[in-house]
Amino acid sequence: MWEKPEPRAAIISDLEKALAQDHHFSDGHVISSMCTSPLDIAREAHAMFIESNLGNAGLYPGTLSLEKQVIEAMAVLLGGKHVAGGIVSGGTEANITALWIARNIAKKKKVIFSRSAHFSFHKACDILAMEPVVVGLDEKYTINVDEVSRKVDRDTAAVVGVAGSTELGAVDDIRALSEAIPDGVFLHVDAAFGGFVLPFLRGMGSRIPDFDFSVQGVSSIAADPHKMGMSTVPSGALLVREREWFRTIHKDAPYLDTLGQLSALSGTRCSAAVAATYAAMRSLGREGYARIVGDCMRVTHHALAKARKLGIEPVIEPVMNILCLRVQDPRAVQKELDAKGWKVSVAQNPPSLRLVIMPHVTVESVDSLFADLEGVIGVKR
Ligand code: PLP
Question: 21-38+285-380 in CATH: which number?
C-alpha cells in the first residue's frame, strides 16, 4: 500500500503509461475479442451513473426503472413479453445464475451441455455442485440433439442450448432441443453473443432457427449488452420466463434498502452499465443494430472471400460475425501474426484460426491482416 498521498499528475501519468500498453479496439488489430468500443452515448451514460449500485436498489429508484425498461426491451427483442430479468456482470454470471435457479427449482444435479458450450458452465457446475453431462456435436457443429435425448433422465435439472457459440458462432437447434427433453427440465439458452446479433440477421433474411422465448420450452436466456449490444463492460443480462423463479435464489438482506432488488449472485452491482445499455439500445434502436450487424456480416464475408483466395476454407460458412479458418498449425500461425501486431485467436473444436469480426474491425484491417497472413502461410507451405 502507498504510504503517503501522491500528486494527481503522477498518478494520471502512470495510468496513461499503463493504458498505452493495452491493446485498443480503435487500432483495428484486435480481431479476437467479443467486446468492442461502446457507443459514445453509452460511455457518457456510464460516467453519469458511476455511483449507482442496484445491490442496494432502494437508494436508486431511477436506475432501477432504467433496468426495468432495458429488460422489457430485451424481452421483446428475444420473443418474450412478460419475462423477468436483470442486468448482471456478463455471460458467465448470467449462465451461473440460470443454472442456480434450475437446480433450486428441480432439486436435481445433472446439467447437459455440448462441447461447444462456454466454459462458464463448468464453473457453474463446480460452484453449484452440479454434475456436467457433456454431449457431442453434429456435422454442423451444433449440439447433438439425439445424444441429448438419450442422456436426459430423471436426475436432469437443466439442458443448455447455445445460440451463437463462442468458437464458431454456431446456433443450436433450440426447438428440436426443447422437443427432445421432458417437460419440467429447465432449458437455458446461452445467447451471450447471439442475443444482439441473431434477431437482426433474421430481419435481413438469414435463415436463423427459433432460439428465443418464442420456443415454449425455453426457460431462460443469457444475452450480453457488452458484446454486440454496444454497451460498456460489465453488462450481461439474464431473462427468465417466470418471475417466481427468482424467488428460488432469493436471500434476505435485512441491512439493505433492497426494495425491488433482483435476486442476484453479485451484491454490489455496477449499475452504470444499466444506464449505458439503456442509452445504447435507445440511441440505436432496431434499425441501428441491424445496420451494425449488417456491416459486421459484410466484413465477415469479405474476410471469407480473402481466405478462399488464399485457398483456406472456413470450418463452417459463417452464421454470425465469427470466421474460423482451417489453417495448418493454427497456434503457430497465431504466434506469427501476433509478432506482426495482430490479436487473433484459435478455436479448439476443430483446431482453426478464429477471427471475431466486431464493429471495430474494418475492411481495411481485414485486408492488412490477410496480407500478413499470406506471408505467414506462404512460409508454412
Ligand atoms: N457465453 C458465450 C456464448 C460466450 O461467448 C461468452 C464469452 O465469450 C460467455 C458466455 C461469457 O461471457 P463473459 O465473458 O461476459 O462472462
Answer: 3.90.1150.10
